[in-house]
Structures are given as structure tokens and as C-alpha cells.
Amino acid sequence: MKSSRVHPLRALARGAALLAGLVVLPSAVLAYADLLPESLTEGLDLVMLWPETTPPVELPHVARQVASGEPLRIVAFGSSSTEGIGASSPAAAYPARLEAALKRALPQLAGQVRVLNRGIGGQHVDDMLARLERDVLAAEPHLVIWQTGSNDPLRGVGLEHFREVTVAAVQRMQEAGIDVVLMEPQWCPKLDATPGAYRFRDAVREIGAELDVPVIRRSDLMREWIAEAKLTRKELFAADGLHMADAGYAMLARAAADEILRDARHLTAAAAE
Q1: Residue 200: which of 181, 214, 215 has the closest Cα?
Q2: Left if phi > 0, otherwise alpha if psi is -120 to 50, otherwise beta: which for 241?
Q3: Inter-residue contact 63 to 77 (CB < 8 Å)
Q4: C-alpha–C-alpha distance, residues 54 and 70, integer Å
Q5: What is the reported pTM?
Q6: 3-state per-residue secondary structure call for 79-140
Q7: What is the pLDDT of residue 193?
Q8: Using one digit for the tens of pLDDT, what is the confidence trace for 87-136?
């Protein structure tokens, strides 16, 4: 059972939010609209991005930076989905879109938001662990979004080994004072055809629950975008059947921004009460 004691960083953020004003939510809505092509935003009710029943996400270091108006530094860590394979340009990859959205959503930071793209295509969990110090910890980010679990079933990594290494790496980042968000593998034709591939997706979700780390449920989101006719398959998937295309990356950036701003939204609501 979780303690009812308020985390000291969250208490600090709540107090600072009283001075920060009610700027986060309205500007965040505008930022999401800017992420997407006009054809994808027509009739989309962006005000409903955060259901009232959704609990706050525990990102105390992000909340502190947002509430105090200090610079926010994020590392997007992962493989090809982070690097942006399948996108028409680096600017169309999700980290670049995420940075642009957060700058619009958080005007109190005066544009001092950086999202560092540390994605390298084809890497599995051991490859990423080998560069954790250099590419992540050395950057001293307030938040890491770690996209993982896509290449591991394709390259024969054992599930238990994947779990052990992922848990150890998340704990290492947390010990360094970094907030962590996990991003699970994508839903795609190539993983559909790979036996056991979605066990890695489930493992990412389980690790998130065990370590109290938010998980961007990309697989479910992608299915929903198709089911709800927000995207066609051609808009969502690149021609290789594994990676996302521009419109898919735009929606993914929106989902990542949603996770990051969720705490800020609750802080704003508390300040208004």
C-alpha cells in the first residue's frame, strides 16, 4: 500500500504552481493541435485528452521544473522508433515534435525545453545499456523516455534477461535523480508475425507497475488510432511494416506530451481550487 505522505518534490511543485498560473492546460491543447496535420485534427476534441478519472503521473522532477519555470531537459532514449526511422525527416520524428509541442505548452519556461534524441536503430536492451552512461546519464536530464522491447524478440534476446537488464537500468536512472517514462513496443505487422514478440510489451508494462514508472502503451494506442479512424494504416505505418510514418510519429509525440504534462495539469487544477 502506498503511503499517503506527499512527496516533498510534489509538495514544492504544488506550492510553486500557485504562482505559475493557469497557463499549462490551454497552451498544451494548442500544442497538440500544432502537432498534427489539419486533416487529423478536424473534429478532434483536444480538451478531452485527460479524462478526469486518470490518476496523476509521478514525475516529481518534471513537475518541479515546470512549476518553478526552470529549464526542462529530456532524453528520448531508444532504438529506431526514437531515432525516427520511417519518418520523412528528423524534424518529423517524435522527439523533435515533442520538443516543439512542449515549448508551446509550457510558455513559462520561455522556450527552455530540450528533447535530446538518443535513438539508434536496431538496438536491443544490452546495446542500450552499454551506452546508458554516455548517452543518458551524462546529459543530466530531468526525464528519460525509454522506448524499448521492439528489437529484442527480433534478435533472440531472452525475456527474463530483458526484464533483469531493464529493471536495473531504470533503477540506475532513478538513483541518479531522473524521472523515467517507459514506452512499450509498437503494434505492427512484423511483430505480429514474430512468435512471443508481445511478451516483451507485457514485460514493459509489468516493469512499469513494479517500479511505479509510467508506461506509454503504444501498442494499444496504435490499434485505437486505426479503430477510431484517426489514422489509416498507410498514414500510421512505414512501407517496411515495422516502423511508423510521419502521421504515426505525430500521434506518438502527442501521447508522450500527454504523459509529461499530466502532472502539470493536476497541479494547475489544484491551484485553481
Answers
A1: 215
A2: left
A3: no
A4: 26
A5: 0.78
A6: CHHHHCCCCCCHHHCHHHHHHHHHHHHCHHHCCCEEEEEEECCCCCHHHHHHCHHHHCHHHC
A7: 85
A8: 999 999 999 999 999 999 999 898 999 999 999 999 999 999 999 999 99
- Going by pLDDT thresholds of 50, 70 and 90, the confidence category of residue 13 is very low
Q: How far is CA 138 from CA 60, 143, 210, 253, in A?
A: 20, 13, 26, 24
Q: Name the amino acid, one letter, at 172.
A: R
The rounded distance, in Å, linking the Cα atoms of 231 and 247 is: 8
Instruction: Give 171's contacts (C-beta < 8 A, 6+ positions apart).
Output: 211
Q: Of 28-32, 194-198, 236-240, where does mean pLDDT reach its minimum?
A: 28-32
Residues paired with 180 in a beta bridge:
144
User: Residue 51: which H helix or E strand, with range?
Assistant: none
Q: Which amino acid is at 69?
A: G
Give Cα separations from 102 to 14, 54, 114, 227 (angstroms): 20, 20, 9, 27
